[in-house]
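Job type: complex structure
Entries:
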Amino acid sequence: MSGIDGKVVAITGASSGIGEATALELAGRGAAVVLGARRVDRLEALAARITQDGGRAAAVTVDVTDRPDVNRFVDAAVERFGRLDVFVGNAGIARTAPVSELDVEGWEAMIDVNLRGVLHGVAAALPVFRRQGRGHLVTVVSTSGLKIVPTQAVYAGTKNAVRTLLEALRQESTDGALRTTSISPGFVRTELVDAITDDDVRRQAQDRMAEIGIDPAAVARAIAFAIEQPDDVEIGDMTIRPTVQN
Ligand code: NDP
């Protein structure tokens, strides 16, 4: 199966930003999308919008830090649409601050969502992919892990842990049944940095995002490109950043 039309795609973090844009892009191209996040009102509004436009979508509340929740999310996709072709592990948070501030709670939250959350997705989706004999795991990591800068130490660490995970999984899965893709966006205009608790770091990040951030649809198109390739073609890593980002 190649292309996007008819594929069943589960997306975590679909209530805003990159996840929402990805759902709209893929649904517009004929995929059935299963939307996961905690803010179910947003998911339901997005699912209604997609359905009204003639697409197929289901909204499922999921907290990716909770393994049974992620299992239920994947089960819901299979129950509703009969299979799961792609799992997009996109949910993420950025509690960035200098390490010296010792925001241990923020570190743990980032590990729980950005790393443990993706691992929960892998644990839930892989058995389904193996059963079907085919599947595609897409994760949204970050240029933070490629160019290391101050204040992003733990955030970048979680993203690079996921990058490492996917490369090992790729090498373990060369029987043709699994494709893996890591997408590394640079600054993208979303709500991501609004939750940063350090006032200076948050203001700087918001300013930079407003100044140079690209539209989340750009990342959605990159995800669509990886998905639409024929089964024997794996897009491993992609970096999408503003042309002016240093
Ligand atoms: P947003 O804040 O707009 O989206 C983050 C999404 O993650 C929301 O849908 C949120 O939904 C969801 N989420 C957060 N915590 C949880 C949780 N515990 N369980 C389930 N869902 C959760 O930001 P982006 O769209 O920018 O972020 C998407 C991904 O892109 C993240 O992994 C981020 O690290 C990455 N990224 C973003 C960049 C940027 O510049 N924007 C750059 C590089 C990477 P809810 O709160 O409803 O649960």
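Summary: The mean pLDDT is 97. The first strand starts at residue 8 and ends at 12.
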